[in-house]
Amino acid sequence: MKKTLALVREFRRGDDATPLVLMGYYNPIYIYGVDKFLADANAAGVDGLIVVDLPPEEDEELCLPALKAGFNFIRLATPTTDDKRLPAVLANTSGFVYYVSITGITGTAAPDTGKVAAAVAGIKRHTKLPVCVGFGVRTAAQARAIAQGADGVVVGSALVETVRDSLGRGGKSTPKSVAAVAELVRALAEGVHSARAS
Is 97 in a helix, a strand, or coil? Predict the structure, then answer.
């Protein structure tokens, strides 16, 4: 956690405008201490949190203190989040809603864009917050299709895989590492922007 917050501080030295959200599990925050974490994360420049294993029933643990400290607390909605459960998920959510496009492990399957569009529309009937979609998005075509209904597209595993595939001996970056990541980001951004233009 200390290294993560140090990375945030380093990033903030050159960029104080880009929103920065930390995503992870509650245990490292619990071990660090909630009050200390919130103070240190605020001082480092964190804007929001996605804590995937804290359900709304546990809002007293971190969500409410985080909101009180000025952080956005972003919740996940999934294909199994039904209309009965959705109000609880949205109750203390701020910033945006993160819709998980597939069930299972991120990066292992492609999202069904038709089902995703219907789910995003359903969520938007219950909230004015932006809805961003992630999990399984790997290509510009997928990003374009999802961006036609969602407010944002989240890509993680595809970037990690691109970095991994560009590494040389001993897991060190090579001259093609930055170029490979930049090309993937360019293609994904182009897909999203083309959806906005149509």
Answer: strand
Domain for residue 59, yes or no? yes
Rounded Cα gap, residues 67 and 92, in angstroms: 8
Successive 10-residue mean pLDDT values, the chain, 198 residues: 97 97 97 98 98 96 98 96 94 96 67 90 96 93 94 94 93 92 96 85
**How far apart are the C-alpha atoms of 119 and 106, rounded to whole Å?**
18
Q: At what angle do helices 113-124 and 140-147 cross, to 10 degrees?
A: 30
This prediction's pTM: 0.90
Domain membership of residue 172 as a residue range: 98-128+135-198
Domain check: are 53 and 113 in the same one?
no
Relative orientation angle of helices 175-197 and 140-147, to the nearest 10 degrees: 30
> Is 65 found in the same domain as 102?
no
